[in-house]
Structure formats: C-alpha cells, structure tokens
Design brief:
By secondary structure, the chain is of the alpha/beta class. It has 2 domains: about 160 residues, ATPase, nucleotide binding domain (Nucleotidyltransferase, domain 5), CATH 3.30.420; about 160 residues, ATPase, nucleotide binding domain (Nucleotidyltransferase, domain 5, 2-Layer Sandwich). It contains 12 helices and 10 strands. Strands 3-2-1-4-5 form a 5-stranded mixed sheet, with helices on both faces. Strands 8-7-6-9-10 form a 5-stranded mixed sheet, with helices on both faces. The longest helix is centred in the last third of the chain and has 27 residues. It is globular, with a radius of gyration of 20 Å. It starts with a strand and ends with a helix. The structure holds 5'-O-[(R)-(carboxyoxy)(hydroxy)phosphoryl]adenosine and zinc ion. The site of zinc ion (ZN) has 6 residues, from helix 4.
Length: about 350
C-alpha cells in the first residue's frame, strides 16, 4: 500500500511516498528556516503563506522522486494536530482536495505519533513494549507504547521543551536560529564539563524542567567575558540537557521493565544525545533505536508511516477532517476505545 504523507505543521513543507508504512520511496522537505531566521523564530502567518506557495510543487516532487503519479497512491496521510493552525490548514486542505479528486482515503495523524513512527522507517520489526523519548521544539515527552496506537504518557516537561531550551540558550548566546543544530556543532569544540549548569529534578517524577537551565545560561552570558567561552558553554549546556534526558529515559524503561528505547523528534538528531543513549543502552542491556537526523526533524515520511498503521486500525477521516493547534497524544485514541466499549 502506497501512502502520500503531507506535513505542514510548522516551518517545513514536506511530502513523501512510503510503501507499507516502512519503505520510503521519497521524502521531500522544503525548509523555511532561512525565511524565519530573519525574525529569530517561526512567524506563524509567514509560515502559512509560504506553505501555500510550496505545497503543490513539494507534493509533485515527492511523486516524481518515487517514480509514480497520484494514480499509484492508495491513501493520503496528513498531520492535522497539534501545530500552527494556519500552517496545518494548508496541508489538510491540500490532502482533502487530492484525496477527493483521486477517490482515495484520508487519514489524520498526530504530530508526535508521526515522530515516533520515523523509527519504523529504520527498523520495520520493532517489538512492543517500547519507551519513546519524544523531544522537539514543542514537546519533551516520555511515552510507553504497548502496541500500534497504544500510548501511555509517563512524563512531560513542566515548562520549556528540550528544543525550546536549545533555541532560547542559543539566542541568549547570540548564535542564531534554530539553536539546536548550531549548539550541537559548536559543542564538538568545547569541554562538556567546563561549566556546571543545573540538571533539574521534578520531585520523584520523570517529568522534565528546562527553564532553570535557560536562566542559568542567560546569567552566565551576562557575566562572561569574550567569545572564546562559547564552545565550552555550548558543550556544557548540551551535556546538561542530555544528562537529564538520558537518565529519565532509562529510569522509565527500567521501572516499566521495557527492553527497548526509541528516540524521536528534532532534538533526537543531537549527536551528543544519540551517543549517550547508545552508550547507556549498551551498559544496561536495553536496545535503542533512533532515526537518522533527516527523519528526526519534521518530515512527511514519518507521517505516511504513521498513517499506514492508523489506516489498518480503521481510522479513516472524512472530508470534514479538522485541525487542532493543541491536542495531547492519546485523546483521540481514548475516545475511540470508549466508543467501542
Ligand atoms: O521536531 P522538530 O523538527 O519540530 C517540532 O516539532 O518542534 O524539532 C525542532 C527542534 C528545534 O528546537 C531545533 O533546535 C531542535 O529540534 N534540533 C536540535 C537539533 N536539530 C534540531 N536540537 C539539538 N541538536 C540538534 N542537532
Ligand atoms: Zn516535530
């Protein structure tokens, strides 16, 4: 089954063709990063207008790269929640029109679920249960996944998301946007133990908190003299974020008796995080999975993969498919179960 995936929830316009949820035939990502870098962050109205310009050429390129036409597509999967509402509507409108014109089914996909399914593009035989660490610009969640579409949220962030922490610290250091990849690169030239930034614990819970780290970095920038300290700051603040993410993730896996951990979301592209997760997984005998960086950040291949599994659970949307700026993962799944009961 060939699914055309569409993603426009933030500042990437993306379309992809994936076969049977696991074989990626194309994945086109038209990034708006340079456009928003001028403003130091994503401007929602600017993003929506750019999606309108890019969506059809991006879909056409995804079909061309997969050597197929719309007649070869069996279903369309689109992110409809959560995200920038104007941006989501552009992707959903394109998906609905094409599905209607081609007479094929449509599936609405949750953004976090899509990030998790990027792992199935790397390893189609993942066995449940798994603990997923989903870390992006808007989320830092630990999720126990017991089957396709079955999620239990174990932890969330109490304030900033991990990606937000990277971006805000980078801005305070005058490093530009988005901060995560810039800090990742700069950290390779610095000493991760040079500065002892705080690692917040939220009581006994597995929740995250990054706002104290952000404040500490802002204070440090105000006091510091000279640009030479930037690599040490980058390496030290990255280490502070990685330490907390890794420790809570493997604590969750151990407490749940789970033998596999998956990384997902833009921050999962961080080289320090990937290395630390591999090392700890190895030490504890817990298998780890992580997508390559291009499948960690927003892309439509992950959407097509998630849509495949949703389709097989009978979750086919009508042309009244709505978009939601915020909606926790699990809400729709729970309402589906209660309807069945
Ligand atoms: O998943 P994503 O592409 O979009 C959202 O759903 O938010 O994640 C974007 C976030 C940004 O905060 C960005 O700075 C961060 O992911 N990011 C990284 C890296 N690449 C992207 N953070 C740390 N290291 C990276 N290499
Ligand atoms: Zn994302």
């Amino acid at each position: 089954m060939r699914i055309l995936g569409i993603e426009t929830s933030c500042d990437e316009t993306s379309a992809a063709v994936v076969e049977d949820g696991v074989a990626m035939l194309s994945n086109v990502i038209a990034s708006q990063t340079d456009l928003h870098a001028n403003f130091g962050g994503v401007v929602p109205e600017v993003a929506s207008r750019r999606h309108v310009e890019l969506i059809l050429p991006t879909i056409q390129k995804a079909l061309d790269d997969a050597s197929c036409t719309i007649d070869d597509i069996d279903c369309i999967g689109v992110i409809n929640r959560p995200g920038l509402i104007g941006a989501l509507i552009v992707g959903a409108a394109a998906a609905k029109s094409i599905a209607y014109g081609a007479g094929i089914p449509l599936v609405g996909v949750h953004h976090i679920e899509a990030h998790i399914y990027a792992n199935w593009l790397v390893d189609p035989r993942i066995e449940f249960p798994v603990v997923c660490l989903v870390v992006s610009g808007g989320h830092s969640d630990l999720i126990l996944m017991t089957g396709h579409g079955e999620y239990r949220i174990l932890a969330r962030t109490r304030d900033d998301a991990a990606g937000e922490a990277f971006d805000k610290c980078a801005r305070a250091m005058g490093l530009g946007y988005p901060g995560g990849p810039i800090i990742d690169k700069l950290a390779k030239e610095g000493n991760p133990h040079a500065i002892q930034f705080p690692r917040a614990k939220v009581g006994d819970s597995l929740d995250f908190s990054f706002s104290g780290l952000k404040t500490a970095v802002i204070r440090y920038v105000e006091d510091m003299s000279g640009i030479a300290q930037l690599p040490n700051m980058a390496a030290s603040l990255q280490q502070a974020i990685v330490d907390v993410l890794v420790s809570n993730t493997f604590r969750a896996a151990t407490e749940c008796g789970v033998k596999r951990v998956l990384l997902a979301g833009g921050v999962a592209a961080n080289s320090g995080l990937q290395e630390a997760v591999r090392k700890t997984g190895n030490e504890l005998g817990i298998a780890v999975g992580m997508p390559p960086p291009i499948l960690c950040t927003d892309n439509a291949a992950m959407v097509a993969s998630a849509a495949y599994f949703r389709y097989h659970q009978g979750e086919i949307a009508g042309l009244d498919l709505d978009c939601f700026a915020s909606q926790p993962l699990g809400l729709v799944e729970l309402s589906r179960l209660s309807k069945q009961a």
